[in-house]
Design brief:
The protein has about 325 residues and is α/β, with parallel strands linked by helices. About 40% of the residues lie in helices and about 20% in strands. The chain has helices spanning about 15-25, 45-55, 70-80, 100-110, 180-185, 200-210, 240-255, 260-280, 290-295, 300-310, 315-320; strands at about 5-10, 35-40, 60-65, 85-90, 95, 115-125, 135, 140, 145-150, 165, 175, 215-225. The strands form two sheets. Strands 1, 2, 3, 4, 5, 6, 7, 10, 11 and 12 form a ten-stranded mixed β-sheet that branches. The longest helix has 24 residues, at about 260-280.
Length: about 325
């Protein structure tokens, strides 16, 4: 049996503190046909030196150094263009998969050509003696148009152990089928670089689902994640991250919200939008520019929306279902139509 090639893509920016451990975990993966591509986005710390020093012994691949910080989206697009394998493992430099993480994801996807992405069971990194917390077990939607990680921050009591369909997958540690990514690309661009960072994985999940690709959660694939960007830590995040988070909230809806969805979610989204505007006005004025950015780019954003909507194969009602459920049973059948 020929072992299929998997390209492990890692985007770094000021990641020296965690990158060595992440590369050690990549080197321990039990899949036998790997290449590693690390794309550094203009780091000024020791990320590049750490990547060279901690590169897994004998592993093929390359380190690509970008002069500017093009964000997760620009880094991933650069890495994708440098590889050709049929599978892509997106892995954050603060995510540490178990040795069988990738092989379990592949086993779930093999034989099911409708599967475009498989995501695993992410646990928060912890100190000795601390309780085990879940980090992400797939992504779900709520009527306020928030996309949330299933189980995030909850004590691990053995819940969420069923393989199932989920709306979306976190970019921190997910296996993608290249054919699916190429199918949802627009003008050759897989990740929308307007997002830069934050919510780009949700936007990709929308395009995958709208084109009929399936996204599956595999609980047997376990990784740890040193997540820093959390809603409760917003005041401690860099202003640029908060700017992109706010801006990208509206990009998601411009691209993917149908008229019917707009009408029934309006009471929820309007309330949340007013709260967000009040917060930004009173506490986070550095993000005010996000509203101006969306307005200035409205023509190109709506032009992109038209291209996305013309290509969709799945009804709006089928996507709306994901605003009410966090999972659906999966037995290896086809995706929504």
């Amino acid at each position: 049996m020929i072992t299929e090639r998997v390209s492990v893509l890692m985007v770094t920016h000021q990641s020296a503190g965690t990158l060595g451990r992440a590369l050690e975990a990549v080197g321990a993966l039990d899949h036998g046909n790997l290449e590693l591509v690390v794309v550094d986005c203009g780091s000024t710390d020791d990320s590049v030196a750490t990547a060279r020093r901690a590169w897994p012994s004998g592993m093929e691949g390359e380190l690509l150094e970008l002069e500017e910080n093009r964000g997760f989206t620009g880094g991933m697009n650069t890495g994708l263009a440098a590889t050709e394998g049929p599978w892509i493992l997106a892995l954050n430099p603060d995510a540490y998969p178990r040795p069988d993480f990738l092989s379990r994801l592949l086993d779930t996807a093999r034989g099911h050509p409708e599967v475009g992405a498989v995501t695993g069971r992410l646990l928060r990194s912890r100190r000795e003696g601390e309780e085990e917390l879940l980090d992400a077990c797939g992504m779900y939607l709520v009527p306020t148009w928030r996309h949330l990680d299933r189980g995030s921050g909850r004590r691990d009591r053995g819940q969420l152990r069923r393989r199932c369909r989920v709306f979306g997958a976190t970019g921190a540690a997910t296996l993608y089928r290249r054919r699916a990514l190429e199918d949802v690309a627009l003008a050759g661009e897989i990740f929308d670089e307007r997002f830069h960072s934050y919510r780009e994985d949700a936007e990709l999940s929308f395009r995958l689902r709208e084109r009929g690709w399936e996204i599956v959660y595999e609980p047997g694939a376990v990784a740890r994640h040193d997540r820093f960007n959390l809603p409760g830590r917003r005041s401690r995040m860099p202003p640029r991250v908060n700017f992109h988070s706010l801006k990208n909230r509206y990009l998601l809806r411009i691209y993917h919200q149908t008229v019917a969805n707009l009408l029934w979610t309006l009471p929820f989204t309007l309330f949340r939008d007013l709260l967000a505007f009040g917060w930004v006005l009173l506490r986070e004025r550095s993000s005010l520019g996000a509203y101006g950015w969306v307005w200035r780019h409205r023509k190109e954003l709506f032009a992109r929306r038209r291209r996305i909507q013309r290509r969709r194969r799945v009804s709006g009602g089928a996507i709306d279902r994901w605003f009410f459920v966090s999972e659906l049973a999966w037995t290896g059948g086809g995706a929504d139509r």
